Amino acid sequence: MDRALATHWPAAACELLATDPWELTVAAILSARTTDTQVNKVMATLGEHLVGIDAYARLEADALQALIRRLPLHGQKARAIVEAARAIIRHHHGRVPEDLAHLAALPGLGRKTAAVVAGNAFGVPAVAADVHVCRAVRRLGWIGEEQPRAAEAALRARFAPARWVRLCHQLIRLGRDHCRRQRPWCSTCPLAATCPRQGVDDAR
User: What domain range includes position 169?
Assistant: First the structure.
């Protein structure tokens, strides 16, 4: 499996555009229930109006909501971003923490989003179990239900920490290209020979 993933997606990486840990934190919060492409468009807009964590902390959530209104859950995301900025300034001297637990404790992040930031901004070994990752891990037969904590534990148990960040990006690409929610492309999947296709009733 490891060889197949490396062969098909050797350079898989985070597709959220960000120039520093705070921008990645914002982008990761915005990414819930939307595509990286849409998030990157909004991040470009934000970059025209806001620079640095202090600018976000000074903002009211309503003002930020107006800038991100094209995204789903924009009100909830705006509040989370402003609160996260203020929490980082208050508790972490204005610097995004590298520690996974501290990141997960910030408003609006949670464990998966914290893993995205820790792994991609700081190189900390972390498993970001998003919907694509959970689906692939379940279909491989490693978990019974698509639960993020179970998927994270399964990957941690099977792969070395140095592989976790790139592995998640490879599984995300697998999910987008082949292991789709409905009628996955099992016939062209590079893992087809070893995948039991758990839970798959109708595949192409």
Answer: 127-188
Rounded-to-5 percentages of helix, strand, coil across the chain: 60, 0, 40
pLDDT in tens, 72-85: 999 999 999 999 99
Residue 178 shares a structural domain with residue 155: yes
Amino acid identity, residue 69?
R
Q: What is the set of active-site residues?
A: 112, 130
Q: Are residues 136 and 168 in the same domain?
A: yes
CA distances from 70 to 14, 131, 137, 191, 197 (A): 22, 22, 32, 36, 36
What is the tens place of the pLDDT at every residue in 1-19? 889 999 999 999 999 999 9
User: What is the CATH number for 97?
Assistant: 1.10.340.30
Q: Are 13 and 169 contacting, i.e. CB atoms less than 8 angstroms apart?
A: yes
Helices assigned H by DSSP within 69-147: 74-92, 100-104, 110-121, 131-139
pLDDT given for residue 165 in this prediction:
98
Angle at 170 between CA 166 and CA 173, to 5 degrees: 140
> What is the Cα–Cα distance from 81 to 150, expressed in whole angstroms?
27
Beta-carbon contacts of residue 69 (< 8 Å; ≥ 6 apart): none
SS3 assignment for 11-22: CCCCCCCCCCHH
